[in-house]
Write a structure and sequence with these properties.
Length: 227
């Protein structure tokens, strides 16, 4: 295993991992892959999704590696529960299924990565480290699936079904983030100050944000303004 891809400034404490798979042999193999890395440590093992949730309540864990197909609660169901229970917990899905439906469900459930068991010895360690850096990890076929899904939506006129903001709200958001006053924004967009203020209130409400600073951070993440 390549030890040169450790994240810079890695903390001395290893990443604490909860591993869930209903096959003991698979768990043992995965544990061997993870435990031979100095920055990774499996601290809890579960045989199904329900047990994984119970262990997450009683153990301090940084990362959950969940098999998708498990009894009682699937990895997808467990991922949803764990995301609600421990919002800071990173989640990786481990599966033998190169399946687009599972991939999209996993991402919706809060997983930050999707690793195929067939190449776990190659990908899993890198995926764990990526998850802890808040970087998504997808195998090449999954990336292709995401791009194809996006292009299909474009072709069918559904380019961004999850789009929250109207074009005008985006304009106001960008100008707010750039530090313009309501009066300046009104003059730039040829609208009234009252309308600008209404747009700002709508933005805060829609995005669940509190103030200009949070709006600015959102605008940076959305690529509307440069940091």
């Amino acid at each position: 295993m390549n030890h040169q891809d450790f994240p810079a400034g890695r903390p001395a404490d290893p990443i604490r991992i909860l591993l869930a798979d209903d096959h003991a042999l698979v768990r043992r193999g995965v544990r061997l892959i993870l435990d031979r890395e100095p920055d990774l440590e499996v601290v809890a093992e579960a045989g199904d999704g329900a047990e994984a949730i119970a262990l997450a309540r009683t153990h301090e864990v940084d990362l959950a590696v969940l098999d998708i197909a498990m009894p009682r609660l699937t990895g997808l169901q467990a991922a949803r529960e764990l995301s609600a229970l421990k919002p800071g917990l990173r989640i990786l899905m481990l599966t033998m299924h190169d399946n687009e439906q599972y991939l999209f469900q996993a991402l919706k459930a809060g997983a930050g990565g999707y690793v195929l068991k067939s190449v776990a010895d190659r990908d899993l360690v890198a995926a764990c480290r990526a998850a802890m850096r808040d970087e998504p990890f997808l195998y090449p076929g999954a990336v292709t699936a995401l791009i194809r899904n996006y292009l299909d939506r474009v072709r069918h006129g559904e380019e961004a079904p999850e789009r929250l903001l109207t074009p005008r709200e985006e304009e106001v958001l960008k100008l707010v983030a750039e530090g313009h006053s309501s009066k300046e924004i009104a003059e730039l967009l040829f609208i009234s100050v009252k309308t600008v203020q209404r747009h700002r209130e709508n933005l805060l409400h829609k995005l669940g944000l509190r103030d200009r600073l949070e709006l600015t951070r959102y605008a940076i993440r959305a690529g509307l303004v440069e940091p």
